[in-house]
Amino acid sequence: DNDPVTTADPAPTSGALFARAKAVTPGGVNSPVRAFDAVGGTPRFIRSATGAWLTDVDGVDYVDLICSWGPMLLGHAHPEVVAAVTAAVARGTSYGTPTEPEVMLAEEIVDRTPVDKVRFVSSGTEATMSAIRLARGFTGRDVVVKFAGCYHGHVDSLLASAGSGLATFAVPGTPGVPESSTALTLVLPYNDRAAVEAAFAEHGDRIACLITEAAAGNMGVVPPGPGFNGFLADICTRHGALFVTDEVMTGFRASRTGYWGIDGAVEGWTPDLMTFGKVMGGGFPAAAFGGRADVMSHLAPEGPVYQAGTLSGNPIATTAGLTTLRLATDEVYTHITSVGDVIKQATTDALTAAGAPHVVQSAGTMFSVFFTDPADGPVRDFAAASRTDGVAYAAFFHAMLERGVYLPPSAYEAWFLSSAHDDRAIQTVLDALPHAASAAAA
Ligand code: PLP
């Protein structure tokens, strides 16, 4: 038996694996939020997953409200995705040549979204990094505008905090990013038109692009105000800058079309560039950026802007993504919406009954819960999100986990559902909520 998992320690526990992991990996994890630092405790090491359920190495089952941070729109180990991927693996896993599945997935994405052409990469970070390079190459300008609280992956120039004044350039958000990397980044408050106008008034002729999450999902869910995305599209066009919507999280997750800025279709604007990831990889490392044909044709080998990847458009990942998107029908989104409505309502009811002040916010099928006084109004930007009560969330999180519900281990993440969240999964969540609400109120 060559399976390194079945031949390993027959009864590892999450605690024992976490200790082993910490000896060989910083913090014991390969992406920081998995470590439970924000909520305390030991992350569960997952052995397997089916449908809406995760099973950890100790044999405990959890309803999964993380869904791999978005990708698992159809739930885990969907039989048709597994069958397609298994067949693809048997044909070989990577050739470093063009293949049919990547053409098919590109056609599917071009079909569903406003992009004319698309280029595949292996992570959302690569997608936004490449989109920015392309925007700079296309416009011949250097400055990038982003919003505080919008996350676009760990791209150096986007790991930036706002500078001291509204339209001043950013400072690095982490050690390891040189000041020179953020010196061309402007970080503005989300949903703040006046700040955007001021930045364009002062630096408009130097701005290559403005990048925004189509709906913010990385400071909790904070939807753009009515018309905000259209306003951004318009001001970019007026100043010759490209409007880049990051749909790594929202794409094919918040809506079927993959185009959360669906109001764009109504208001008559389209982004110049878009980035995708998560759902379109079906649980494999795949992401993409795409957009206007005249912009995309600036990419190598058609144009001068260099961009490449050994595993880009990998046949297994594109097969998984294509199969997932083809199964992502209207019924899937209707189901996820109605399950979300039930869970949002039950969460509000339980927290209200327990006396825990909170606000539930949604964008398409995505939603999250802020522990904050509803009298302060909705959370519209990062400053407001940062004022919410992380301690209450930690108590809430652990009470849910104890009762078999795996929420994101951070107050600033969306809760994700799938088409596999059925009555049994919903009931487990509903049964856990009153206990968790009391814990949050305590
Ligand atoms: N953009 C957005 C909106 C995201 O939510 C994320 C990841 O959560 C990324 C980009 C980065 O994607 P990845 O983690 O695949 O690099």
Specify Rg, calculated over alpha carbons: 22 Å
CATH-assigned homologous superfamily of the largest domain: Type I PLP-dependent aspartate aminotransferase-like (Major domain)
Distance between the termini: 51 Å
Element pattern in H and E: HEEEHHEHEEEHEHEHEHEEHHHEEHHEH
What binds here, in terms of ligands, is: pyridoxal-5'-phosphate
Computed structural class: alpha/beta
CATH class category label of the largest domain: Alpha Beta
Unreliable runs: none
User: What is the fold-level CATH name, i.e. the topology of the largest domain?
Assistant: Aspartate Aminotransferase, domain 2
Helix content: 25-40%
- Order of strands across the widest beta sheet? 4-12-11-10-9-5-8
Determine the strand fraction and express it as a percent band: 5-15%
* Total domain modules: 2
What is the average per-residue confidence, as pLDDT, rounded to a whole number?
A: 94
Main beta sheet strand tally, sense and closure: 7 strands, mixed
Discrete helix count: 14
What's the CATH architecture name of the largest domain? 3-Layer(aba) Sandwich
Gross morphology is globular
Total number of strands: 15
Cofactor: pyridoxal 5'-phosphate
Pathway: Porphyrin-containing compound metabolism; protoporphyrin-IX biosynthesis; 5-aminolevulinate from L-glutamyl-tRNA(Glu): step 2/2
Organism: Nocardioides psychrotolerans
Modified residues (N6-(pyridoxal phosphate)lysine): 278
